[in-house]
Amino acid sequence: MNKVVEVKDLVKKYPGFQLGPIDLEIPEGSIVGLIGPNGAGKTTLIKSMLNLVHRDAGMVRIMGMDLSKNEREIKDIVGYVGEHQYFYEDKRVSWLGNFVSSFYSNWNNDLFRELLEKYQIDPKKRARELSKGMRVKLSFAIAISHNPKVMLLDEPTSGLDPIVRREILEEMRNIAGDEKRSVLISSHITDDIDRIADYVIYLLDGKVALYSEKDSLLAEWKRIHYVDGELPDSLQNSLFDKTETAFGNSGITSKYSELKALLDPLLQEGRVKVENLGLDDILICLVGKCKK
């Protein structure tokens, strides 16, 4: 699969905090979810990928172009939505679209108007009259209307009510499915990433603690429920985070495919149960909060 974004050895230093070195790739037509607690470096990473924050070291390449040499060309093909939306508050939506259009060679005003209608944004309204959800939708309309190949989204669903959040997430699916666009979206809401992402990056203390295809990750991490004496010692010893449950006992494996041949007969006999884990459960273990 083609790589539309490559980041190599990216470093950004602040007093008391260092992001990186970061290595990552974003495949064409994929949604990559960037998860991590507040302060992990998610916003710094995304801004560094656009030179909105000057990186101290490393290389960023987007659509084959080096950010150090082709910043203007890269920004022409990237759509960016930040956590906070900054507009000229007294200006009308239609004016904002006309203003932004001058920065992009491929701006499509017909598409912008279509998106305003789709998102039910009145072009005559002033920015200060828009709700939080409408401001995010306007940011998306602006970010999409120059037909970007890559979308970089920094906590776009933060602070939104559940209904608007769901609408925004559905739009992200549409964006990625349209013309093989690629999306990098950061969030501390793991349910959002679980819902839409093809790949997951977990950022912790400025480092990549995990980068995996989401479905592969979820397929390997399982909680096994069993009754004492019903599980071979070799299998039981391979589990961690062991706890007592209503079924008897349980433990987690991160290598379900390796245990499946041993577990299948026990499953058929009803001697064990297998429970799927969510991203939240997996990330808790990855940061060392599961019992060994």
Automatic annotation (TrEMBL):
Keywords: ATP-binding, Nucleotide-binding, Transport
Pfam family, one: ABC_tran
All residue ranges annotated as the ABC transporter domain in the record: 5-230
Cross-referenced PROSITE patterns: ABC_TRANSPORTER_1, ABC_TRANSPORTER_2
Molecular-function GO term, any one: ATP binding
Origin superkingdom: Bacteria
Signal sequence segment: none
Annotated InterPro entries: AAA+_ATPase (IPR003593), ABC_transporter-like_ATP-bd (IPR003439), ABC_transporter-like_CS (IPR017871), ABC_Transporter_VariousFunc (IPR051782), P-loop_NTPase (IPR027417)
Protein name: ABC transporter domain-containing protein
Protein species of origin: Kosmotoga arenicorallina S304
